[in-house]
Write a structure and sequence with these properties.
Blueprint: H1 4-14, H2 19-29, H3 43-46, H4 59-62, E1 69-70, E2 75-77, H5 83-96, H6 106-109, E3 110-111, H7 120-126, H8 135-144, E4 151-152, H9 153-168, H10 170-177, H11 186-200, H12 203-212, H13 216-233, H14 235-247, H15 258-262, E5 266-271, H16 278-288, E6 292-296, H17 299-311, E7 316-319, E8 324-325, E9 332-336, E10 345-351, H18 363-372, E11 374-382, H19 387-397, E12 400-405, E13 413-414, E14 430-433, H20 437-450, E15 454-458, H21 464-475, E16 481-486, E17 500-503, E18 507-509, E19 514-516, H22 519-526, E20 540-543, H23 549-557, E21 566-568, H24 572-581, H25 587-597, E22 599-600, E23 604-606, H26 610-618, H27 627-633, H28 643-657, H29 676-698, H30 707-727, H31 755-760
Helix pairs in contact: 1-9, 2-11, 7-12, 8-13, 9-11, 9-12, 9-13, 10-13, 21-30, 22-23, 25-26, 28-29, 29-30
The protein binds adenosine-5'-triphosphate and magnesium ion.
EC number: 3.6.4.13
Enzyme class: hydrolase
Catalytic activity: ATP + H2O = ADP + phosphate + H(+)
Length: about 750
């Protein structure tokens, strides 16, 4: 009996005037005759990889509908729908509707149903010998078949349904990638195969497939035959796709650093929660070493280590994207992780906050440092979330791994009372954490208006110098600034005299909507309270509102995540190689294509490149930039949501492209900010100067002749920002007027009215 869908399909096929009829005819028509697949230039490479139907349990494939995984390859693929393939498909679709030659005459293949009524199971047993046949033999036989026996209508229906299911099979599509048949080309190839098969299959094959019916088993039986067919029919498509995929190969990243691989490195993982002495211990080894490098997640922290180590008598230089301070005769350097050299040889390297390897945007910098550093001893400091990945990486690299586990010096205590929604309950030594700039100023205004406390502020858009100035103002006991209001920027780096961390809220805007702050971040921030050696060694944490308390406790109780993948990003040379396969393609599109086609091992993901693509798009029409220039400009530190800063970047790039000296072309404000828009303006100006300095360090320096001027201006603006923050008592504004305010969101966290708003009411 024909099954339901098969019946429907058959009725469509029977309609001779329909487009489908013509499509079917075309699909059945284009049969080419080639030599044996072993003569294909790809055969020796591909053939052994062809998955055998017996070795692939379906469960292994169900989860990989988007990213194909081949157990036989141990690779993850980002499925490709390349432009070339799309256009190929488009063109073939149009041919399909026109070409009616060489059709499979379905009536010719049909015969009266056999009267004998054999059950499906019995049929399967009778024809089970087909399953054990060599797919190459089956393919040969199909190719050589001219006439085949008639089938009953119901068998025909089932067979067409089996082949239709095969052409829709996600599993088969994923597997086909292993033989370089792209995801977008697969449906076309499968249709062609279907028509070939329908026309030539013999009775035993038909009976066996009918006994299997549409689904996994039939797909696995058909797949190796399909591969044989494709090798002969589509050698050019296979070759082209293979070249493209190979040029975007990011598998085995440990092999990118042959010199580091030639060394026998010792990796020490200082693993523990915040405030447990990880960085302290790693820095001890760093200072003892003859030659050492410290890799920091932030400029601020690199500066702190630079100062601290020099103060202890170990000469140390500083290297960040924006500045280079060479200390005479120094053998030590404190740098930001993006700037670390994988060419230099070190005795000891420290990579701080190693869990940042899993950061969706910046993770690649930590991965590169871990894989590429040429150091006898590498100290990793971080929470346990990436420990398993690091273990795997050490197996790949052959490095020795030593794990040192730490506990917090003093347990963190949760204050169950909370601030009861009233900012009047703040006390000296409190740090109020809010996740939006606007809220930070709202809280500052409220506290300074209704209490006797004065507040310092720390948030991401402030230059590191200003953040340090605010931190020392807060740490210093000889002034009235005893409360700190901070964003998540307080989570890393600064040693602060914080008695209690109070979460103003526990949700934040992620660029799209309000989301709960991840538990790992809550832990990290809460852990800043009560540092060893500070005025308040016993740390407390709580929330402003009682209804947030449960979430805080839940986050603190939660074990650290076990991260499965860490970030990677291609070097310029890899992008250049890929660009060679797609000449004339614009850079933003090229990046997109790279993202879609690159291959990665199971422990890695490709870092998000939205920021990079935004800049690439902006610079698309700037003439005179080489591919490398474009690539480098894309990493400039700019807030892509700040149109003024983006405008200056475009201006810098245009001057550079025209081979003109790049001007700062930006005035200097005369005084500290008197309102929030002036403060925002200062923040932007500092960002532009910081960008100028960064560019001067990443491009030919002579093209940026105003570095000294930019440095002076940046220092002056950081000071003005500091002054402005001390005076700041205004209502905050939003940098981007269109950015939705948390209160406007229907879903997610609803912030109860702050003190200041209650007062205004
Ligand atoms: N053995 C020690 N002797 C003196 N002070 C120490 C010692 N260990 C740690 N400290 C101090 O304790 C504080 C916290 O240590 P450290 O910064 O190393 O912690 P951490 O585990 O790296 O925390 P974080 O998660 O914040 O990076 C620092 O001020 C550090 O100087
Ligand atoms: Mg640390």
């Amino acid at each position: 009996m024909a099954r339901g869908p098969a019946k429907r399909l058959f009725s469509l096929y029977s309609c001779k005037n329909s487009k489908l009829y013509m499509v079917r005819n075309f699909l059945c028509s284009r049969l080419f005759h080639h030599s044996h697949p072993s003569e294909s230039p790809f055969y020796p490479l591909n053939a052994p990889q062809v998955p055998q139907r017996t070795q692939l349990p379906p469960s292994q494939f169900t989860q990989f509908t988007k990213f194909g995984i081949f157990p036989d390859f141990h690779r993850h693929w980002f499925c490709s729908v390349s432009e070339n393939e799309k256009s190929l498909l488009d063109s073939t679709e149009s041919i399909q509707l026109e070409d009616e030659s060489d059709k499979v005459d379905e009536e010719e293949r049909l015969c009266e149903p056999e009267t004998q009524n054999i059950g499906q199971e019995e049929e399967r047993l009778i024809f089970s010998h087909v399953a054990t046949r060599d797919p190459v033999e089956i393919y040969k036989e199909l190719k050589d078949t001219v006439h085949c026996k008639k089938e009953s209508r119901s068998d025909w229906d089932t067979l067409t349904e089996v082949l239709r299911c095969f052409s829709k099979s996600g599993w088969a599509s994923n597997q086909a990638l292993a033989v370089y048949i792209g995801a977008s080309f697969f449906p076309f190839a499968a249709h062609k195969f279907g028509s070939f098969f329908l026309k030539r299959c013999n009775n035993d094959l038909v009976k066996y497939l009918v006994s299997l019916g549409p689904g996994d088993e039939a797909d696995k039986f058909l797949f190796p035959i399909f591969v044989e067919f494709c090798m002969e029919e589509f050698p050019d498509e296979i070759k082209r796709f293979r070249k493209m995929v190979e040029s975007a190969d990011m598998t085995k990243p440990h092999t990118w650093f042959p010199f580091a691989r030639a060394m026998k490195r010792k990796i020490v993982y200082h693993c523990g929660p915040t405030n447990s002495g990880k960085t302290y211990n790693a820095l001890q080894r760093f200072m003892e070493a003859k030659k050492g490098v410290y890799c920091s997640p932030l400029r601020l922290l690199a500066m702190e280590v630079f100062d601290k180590v020099n103060a202890l008598g170990v000469y140390c230089s500083l290297l960040t994207g924006q500045e280079r301070k060479d200390f005479p005769f120094s053998n030590h350097v404190a740098c930001t992780v993006e700037m670390v050299s994988t060419d230099e040889l070190y005795d000891v390297a420290v990579i701080d906050e190693i869990q940042m390897m899993a950061d969706p945007c910046r993770g690649y910098a930590w991965t590169r440092a871990l894989l590429g550093l040429k150091a006898d001893e590498i100290h990793l400091c971080g929470d346990p979330s990436v420990l398993n990945v690091v273990r795997q990486i050490c197996l790949d690299t052959g490095d020795e791994l030593v794990e040192q586990h730490y506990e917090r010096f003093k347990p963190l205590v949760v204050e169950a009372k909370t601030l009861l929604g009233d900012l009047k309950n703040v006390r000296s030594g409190d740090c109020i954490v809010a996740f939006a700039r606007r809220e930070i100023f709202e809280v500052k205004l409220a506290i300074e208006k209704f209490t006797n406390h004065r507040c310092c502020v720390i948030y991401g858009a402030l230059p590191p110098e200003t953040r340090r100035q605010q931190a020392s103002l807060f740490n210093n006991q000889d002034n009235e600034f005893d409360v700190l209001i901070a964003s998540d920027a307080v989570g890393m780096g600064l040693n602060l005299n914080i008695r209690r961390i109070v979460f103003y809220n526990l949700s934040k805007y992620n660029g799209d909507k309000m989301v709960p702050v991840p538990a790992s971040q809550v832990k990290q921030i809460a852990g800043r309270a009560g540092r060893r050696g500070s005025r308040y060694p016993d740390g407390l944490t709580t929330t402003l509102h009682l209804d947030d308390l449960d979430y805080l406790i839940e986050c603190l109780k939660k074990p650290f995540d076990d991260v499965k993948k860490v970030g990677l990003f291609p070097f310029f040379e890899q992008v250049e190689l890929f660009a060679g396969q797609l000449p004339d393609m614009k850079f933003p599109k090229l990046l997109e294509q790279f993202g879609e086609n690159c291959r990665l091992d199971g422990s890695y993901f490709l870092c998000q490149h939205l920021h990079i693509r935004k800049i690439a798009n902006m610079l698309e029409r700037t003439q005179g930039l080489s591919l490398e220039d474009r690539f480098n400009f894309c990493f400039a530190p700019v807030n892509i949501r700040d149109p003024k800063a983006m405008y200056h970047l475009l201006r810098f790039a245009s001057s550079y492209a025209q081979k003109l000296p790049v001007n700062i072309a930006m005035g200097m404000p005369k005084c500290a900010a008197r309102n929030d828009s002036e403060l925002l303006d200062l923040e932007t100006r500092h960002q532009v100067l910081s960008m100028y300095l960064w560019l001067s360090n990443h491009f030919e320096e002579e093209r940026f002749p105003y570095v000294k001027k930019a440095e002076t201006m940046a220092t002056d603006i950081a000071e003005l920002l500091g002054e402005s923050l001390i005076k700041a008592n205004w209502k905050p504004e939003s940098r981007n007027a269109r950015k939705p305010k948390p209160q406007e969101k229907e879903e997610g966290y609803q912030r109860p009215m702050s003190l200041i708003k209650l007062h205004e009411k």
